[in-house]
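FIELD: query
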Amino acid sequence: MDNKLIIAIIDDDSIFQFIAKRFIKSFESVNETLIFSDGKDAIDFLFSNVDDQNKLPDIIFLDINMPVMNGWQFLNKYIELKSKIEKKIMIYVVTSSNNPDDFIQAKSIHEVADYIVKPINREKYTSILNSFCK
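FIELD: result
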């Protein structure tokens, strides 16, 4: 792979942000980790960089329960924007919710690659990043 990955973490939990960034930073395949504390900041970033695909993330780790704009609202806005994005972006819902309804809703959204209940461990990050780099 010539280009290194850009990863976005969209989660309001500063401890999760810190741990996830630390895990992700250790991978040679990762160039940059973007951190957003709510869906609105993240979707605003995507909208403002839609014409510069090199700034957009390759992988998004998305929480569901956040202030301002939650994960479901983010996904709705992302789906509206997706037709303008040429880059393939993989979205992983990473949440503390083990509610079966959330799981079913996430699986029904084509843009969601997987639903992961926190905590997410190093092996899971490794699996995701390695599968993307193949």
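FIELD: remark
Strands lie at 5-10, 30-36, 59-62, 90-95, 112-117.
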